[in-house]
Design brief:
Blueprint lengths: L5 E6 L3 E6 L6 E4 L2 H9 L6 E5 L6 H9 L3 E5 L1 H10 L7 H15 L11 H26 L8 H26 L2 H11 L6 H13 L5 H7 L4 E2 L2 E2 L2 E2 L3 E2 L5 H14 L6 H15 L3 H16 L3
Parallel strand pairs: 1-4, 4-5
Antiparallel strand pairs: 1-2, 2-3, 6-9, 7-8
Helix pairs in contact: 1-2, 5-6, 6-8, 7-8, 8-10, 10-12, 11-12
Length: about 300
């Protein structure tokens, strides 16, 4: 029986460096529609293809390959970086990176999650969430940079109002997209009933819960990076830290929601109990872990 090819691709703006596990060398394919289709047509059978997440340089290849029946793995750059270093490579080139990706897919595909192509609505929600985060960072940076300035230029206030207007427009567009789908609307409505959840977090959380399939609630917690990371060895039991994998913006919004909920009569006592317990165990880490505990409690209350 012919084995499935495991292919690794290092993507850039102009080209795709393509390597097949078990074969030496690599080939270059232009990162444009016609050349991608010609190369994909040369593959006799469906293959496993791994490609590093690159913002948008990988997206055309992913869409074309999935349309032709191939299994795609869009890989975390940090994971690949650690994997390549573990191989003891003495150099870094596009060819070596593509070969390492192919090797990684061949050995780890059973533990990887195949990429799920988003719908047009999901794709736009992804884009808007990412762009909103950038605008918020710009707004905060601008405000902080002029905090100590005694005489602020009038343009600063105008810029802040313009950035806020852009944020409001993005929020409105995201809300209108959720309203187009009855199922998403119902999810968002239920999430709004969770203490601390506002319109924005309800929208982003609804999108996160429905964008991918999760086996259970713990799988979703791990996806958004709120799962504890163990560091144990022998008799030593190390401190637990959050893995912080997955969507950073959703974690930020959950943190804000947890802080808001911790000030309410419903959650204040629970928050103080967690904070006191963890302060005894972890000293200066008490506040951080108490806040994390509130986030996880909020998640457990939310519908899955």
């Amino acid at each position: 029986m012919k084995s499935t090819l495991n292919i690794g691709i290092d993507a850039s703006k102009e080209t795709l460096e393509v390597a097949v596990d078990g074969r030496g060398g690599s080939i270059k394919v232009g990162n444009e529609l016609k050349q991608i289709k010609v190369w994909l047509s040369s593959l006799a059978e469906p293959c496993r293809i791994g490609i590093e997440s690159t913002g948008h340089y990988h997206q055309l290849l992913v869409r074309c390959a999935m349309a032709m029946g191939h299994t795609l793995y869009v890989l975390n750059p940090k994971d690949l970086s650690h994997y390549v270093r573990s191989l003891g490579r003495r150099a870094k080139t596009d060819r070596l990176d593509a070969q390492a990706i192919a090797r990684y897919v061949a050995r780890e595909y059973e533990q990887l999650h195949a990429y799920q192509l988003p719908t047009a609505l999901q794709f736009e929600l992804d884009e808007l969430t990412q762009r909103r985060r950038v605008v918020v960072q710009m707004q905060v940076s601008l405000r902080q940079s002029f905090t100590e300035v005694s005489r602020k230029p009038r343009a600063v206030a105008r810029s802040q109002r313009a950035l806020q207007a852009l944020i409001d427009e993005i929020d409105g567009r995201m809300a209108s997209l959720i309203a187009k789908d009855p199922q998403l609307t119902e999810h968002a409505k239920r999430l709004r009933s969770v203490i601390g959840f506002g319109p924005l977090l309800s929208t982003v959380m609804t999108h996160a819960l429905t964008r991918r399939s999760f086996k259970n609630g713990d799988a979703f917690v791990a996806y958004i990076g709120l799962d504890p990371k163990a560091r144990d060895s022998g008799q030593m039991r190390g401190r637990r830290f959050l893995s912080k994998r997955g969507p950073a913006e959703l974690r930020r919004l959950l943190y804000v929601a947890a802080m808001s909920a911790s000030k309410t009569s419903t959650w204040r006592a629970i928050y103080q109990r967690y904070r006191g317990s963890w302060t005894v165990q972890y000293g200066h880490l008490g506040d951080h872990r108490a806040q994390t505990g509130a986030c996880r409690l909020l998640h457990r209350q939310a519908p899955h």
